[in-house]
Amino acid sequence: MKTILAEASRVPIAKQIEDIVLSTPVVDVHTHLYDPAFKELLLWGIDDLLVYHYLVAEVFRYSDLPYDKFWALSKIEQADLIWDALFIQHSPISEACRGVLTTLHLLGLDVKKRDLPALRQWFASQKVETHVTRCMELAGLKKIYMTNSPFDDVERLVWEKGFRRDERFAAGLRIDQLLLAWPETAPRLVRWGYKVEAGAPPRKTFDEVRRFLADWTKRIDAQYVMVSLPSNFEFPAKNIATQLIEKAVLPHCREHGLPFALMPGVRRAVNPQLKLAGDGVGLTNLEALQNLCAGFPENKFLTTVLARENQHELCVLARKFRNLHIFGCWWFTNVPYLVDEITRMRVELLGLSFTPQHSDARVLDQIVYKWTHSRGIIAQVLVDKYSALGQTGWQISRAEIERDVKDLFGGAFERFFKQ
Ligand code: FIX
Ligand code: ZN
Fold first, then answer.
1. Which of 250, 266, 279, 341 has its CA 20 to 30 Å from the CA of residue 306?
2. Ligand 2 centre from 175 Cα, in Å?
3. Which residue from 74, 81, 69 is spatially nearest to 116, judged by alpha carbons?
């Protein structure tokens, strides 16, 4: 991987730290990528890169095309429009645009030609199996956690049919529909053979939800259970989501030794016309998380929060509760300015007991840019922190830096599961 630190020579150990950060394999703890066996569910290539929902949101900053006209276009036509508006008519300096170019550049493509047909031609000649390996190598990833939802009709059928797993892809059981859309989900569970009742559920319903979670945990070999939550999430509260968490999800996680990953801060469909690109961010009252960590010490919680304004409080909570592990700069916080700020704050408050980044990639090729950009920032933060230690007379060995970086890049995350 290329040298990122412009001033590396300034600090004697900077080069060593940079080398270690750039070469340590990473566990990407949350993505929306799939094992290649899921075929078309694994997105990759230039058109998927261009129609990424981050770029869809950005194109409407410049285009006055009615939303329905945009959605009526084919994927290639949407990609053409985005390329023209965000890369040709304006310079592509936003993080999401720059990311496309970093990826193309590291794949060995010549971006300065601005030749979209040539880029398409190159991707058309790639085979997905080798492309997965290539992207993982360029990103330096050793494992990718997927987001696996039994409520996705296409995905569910693949799991039910069975396939040979690619061991580089681990599963995360995603349960948003279960917790946040219970009235629609309960009849589906009934159809799948679970004896649940939608309104004022009796004890039996929660046992049946546990049976459903156990079946799916086993089927997909889930490593954690995950939900993204609206910014107004409360716990405790008088609603079905709270009851399901308390009486089904948390007991299930305890029984199977799985962490429960909560991702609060989303305001879904702030602009529904933008579809997937239409979600926003809101401040969360993290007392809900505090109540969970304090009330269920036998459970383990993984958390990333969407609002910048929640990041400090989240760090302080992690100092109070060892059953809380924080990870990633999620979505709107995954921009260099905030990754730098958040990572520095986390190191200063938590040392090495957190996971600085996940990619949240939806398109395979994105792991290349997301990890290249993040590694550069993490390296710079560590150079500053180890240099500050050096000023006290503390000397650090290469082995110690390697140990620390391994922890940041998945070691601490996976150890948290096993403790
Ligand atoms: O809920 C989530 O896991 C979010 O990461 C996504 O739904 C979101 O659309 C995204 O892609 C963020 O990066
Ligand atoms: Zn996600």
1. 250
2. 13
3. 81
Residue from 402, 238, 235 nearest 303 by CA: 235
Do the beta carbons of residue 387 and residue 5 sit within 8 Å? no
User: How many Å apart are CA 115 and CA 110, to the nearest integer?
Assistant: 9
Nearest-atom index, ligand 1, CA of 360 = 13
6 pLDDT exceeds 90? no
**Residue 2 pLDDT:** 46
φ, ψ of residue 281 to 5 degrees: the values are -125, 145
Cβ(275) to ligand 1 under 6 A?
Answer: no
- The answer to whether the peptide bond before residue 236 is cis (omega within 30 degrees of 0) is yes
Q: To 10 degrees, the CA torsion angle through 38, 181, 284, 323?
A: -60
Sorted by sequence, the CB contacts under 8 Å of residue 79 that are 6+ apart come out as 46, 47, 50, 51, 116
Minimum CA distance residue for ligand 1 atom 12: 331
- Of the pLDDT bands very low, low, confident and very high (cuts 50, 70, 90), residue 12 is confident
